[in-house]
């Protein structure tokens, strides 16, 4: 993976986390344990510190950045969907930020909350725990139900399993030129690959 030191600060990535080889980490980036960072994500700690705590995931094409003297933080079990932008904000424990959402400076997303896809969270906006947050500008429209919070937790567990799958089986190869005979899709149970599907 491209990892760059700047002004003497080097990103930190524990061995039990996975950062895709195309993701870029710069400077004051601190990754926790069992974290997944997806393809083409960019975590730029060249002004403010970037922190991704244990069990969180930062998916494909996400950007994390911030102004000087400002931290951008994703707490434990945070779940950041494809293409989201986090700038100088704080994402609470077990919160989800949907695909292509933008969360701006000094905004705070409460624990267990869900920010909808393509939402725009303004600077300094503060949302309490357990809220469904949608729109542009974003607003909390209701409390989340327990089953919705559990759905989010299951999705995050799947990304924690993906860390292990990537460490064990992901490697760069040349493409096949034709589909193999009897090619089987993956079969999952509770987010874990259990076997290849049987041909009918």
Commentary on this structure:
The structure is a single chain. The chain is mainly beta. The chain is 12% helix and 36% strand. The chain contains one helix and 21 strands. The chain has one helix spanning 146-169; strands spanning 3-4, 18-19, 24-31, 36-37, 42-52, 57-58, 63-65, 72-74, 79-80, 85-87, 90-91, 96-97, 102-103, 108-109, 114-115, 120-121, 126-127, 131-135, 138-143, 186-189, 192-196. The strands form three sheets. Strands 1, 3, 5, 7, 8, 10, 11, 13, 14, 16 and 17 form an eleven-stranded parallel β-sheet that branches. An eight-stranded mixed β-sheet has the order 2-4-6-9-12-15-18-19. The protein has a two-stranded antiparallel sheet with strand order 20-21. The chain starts with a strand and ends with a strand.
Could you list some keywords that capture this structure?
200 residues; mainly beta; eleven-stranded parallel β-sheet; eight-stranded mixed β-sheet; 12% helix; globular
Q: How is this fold's topology laid out?
A:
Layout lengths: L2 E2 L13 E2 L4 E8 L4 E2 L4 E11 L4 E2 L4 E3 L6 E3 L4 E2 L4 E3 L2 E2 L4 E2 L4 E2 L4 E2 L4 E2 L4 E2 L4 E2 L3 E5 L2 E6 L2 H24 L16 E4 L2 E5 L4
Parallel strand pairs: 1-3, 2-4, 3-5, 4-6, 5-7, 5-8, 6-9, 7-10, 8-11, 9-12, 10-13, 11-14, 12-15, 13-16, 14-17, 15-18
Antiparallel strand pairs: 18-19, 20-21
> Can you count the helices?
1
Distance between the termini: 40 Å
Helix content: 10-25%
State the major sheet: 11 strands, parallel
Order of helices and strands: EEEEEEEEEEEEEEEEEEEHEE
Give the radius of gyration: 18 Å
Q: What is the number of E strands? A: 21
Shape descriptor: globular
Q: List low-pLDDT spans.
A: none
Percent strand equals 35-45%
- Average pLDDT across residues? 95
Give the class from helix and strand content and strand pairing. Answer: mainly beta
């Amino acid at each position: 993976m491209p990892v760059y030191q700047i002004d003497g600060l080097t990103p930190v990535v524990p061995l039990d986390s996975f950062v895709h080889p195309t993701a870029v980490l710069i400077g004051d980036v601190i990754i926790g344990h069992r974290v997944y960072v997806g393809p083409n994500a960019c975590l730029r700690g060249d002004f403010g510190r970037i922190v991704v705590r244990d069990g969180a995931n930062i998916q494909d094409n996400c950007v994390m950045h911030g102004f000087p003297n400002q931290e951008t933080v994703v707490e434990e079990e945070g779940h950041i969907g494809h293409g989201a932008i986090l700038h100088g904000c704080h994402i609470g424990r077990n919160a989800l930020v949907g695909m292509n959402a933008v969360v701006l400076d000094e905004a705070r997303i409460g624990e267990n909350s869900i920010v909808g896809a393509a939402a725009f969270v303004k600077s300094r906006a503060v949302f309490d725990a357990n809220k469904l947050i949608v729109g542009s500008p974003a607003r909390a429209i209701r409390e989340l139900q327990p089953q919705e919070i559990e759905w989010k937790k299951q999705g995050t567990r799947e990304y924690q399993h993906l860390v292990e799958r990537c460490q064990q089986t992901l490697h760069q190869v040349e493409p096949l030129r034709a589909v193999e005979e009897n090619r089987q899709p993956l079969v999952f149970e509770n987010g874990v690959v259990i076997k290849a599907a049987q041909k009918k």
